[in-house]
């Protein structure tokens, strides 16, 4: 093998394996010894292909962890559930309701251990409001109950009057 066939970016071991493969192919094709010029031409063509493809080298550093490559610390990237069209519409509607409906919190007491002088007045006012609300609910319940009883008695009287006036 001449030195002008050896290139710097092709290792000799790879080139030697290539030559052995080509010689075995040429020898098996014809039982006679192959034409040396043909073998050299095949070797040269194959060597050009091998020389064009750089050899894969092992990286100097180990591969980066997944978090460093993707910018995520999750073991597996989250993919939302696959929803049907109706479910997607429902999700959009529910999200819109949750975002647009205000949550009203009035006069929440603090989380400190000691109560200030104004806290009692706030507590008394909140207690009075709650008692008024419960009283209104009771009055409304009584009114609805009386109305239901009245309509029931009225229907009974109407049926009784209807039965008396029916011709036999």
From TrEMBL:
Region (Disordered) residue spans: 106-128
InterPro entries, per database record: Prkrip1 (IPR009548)
TM helices/strands, residue ranges: none
Any one cellular-component term (Gene Ontology): nucleolus
GO function term, MF aspect, one: double-stranded RNA binding
Protein name (Swiss-Prot/TrEMBL): Uncharacterized protein
Organism this protein belongs to: Salix viminalis
């Amino acid at each position: 093998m001449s030195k002008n066939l050896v290139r710097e970016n092709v290792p000799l071991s790879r080139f030697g394996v290539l030559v052995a493969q080509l010689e075995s192919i040429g020898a098996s094709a014809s039982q006679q010894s192959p034409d040396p010029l043909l073998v050299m031409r095949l070797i040269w063509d194959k060597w050009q292909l091998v020389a064009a493809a750089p050899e894969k080298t092992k990286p100097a550093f180990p591969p980066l962890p997944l978090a460093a490559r993707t910018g995520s610390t999750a073991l597996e990237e989250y993919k939302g559930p696959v929803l049907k069209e109706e479910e997607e519409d429902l999700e959009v509607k529910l999200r819109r309701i949750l975002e647009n409906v205000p949550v009203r919190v009035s006069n929440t007491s603090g989380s400190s251990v000691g109560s200030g002088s104004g806290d009692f007045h706030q507590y008394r006012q909140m207690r009075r409001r709650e008692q008024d609300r419960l009283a209104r609910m009771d009055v409304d319940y009584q009114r609805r109950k009386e109305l239901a009883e009245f309509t029931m008695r009225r229907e009974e009287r109407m049926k009784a009057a209807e039965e008396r006036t029916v011709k036999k």
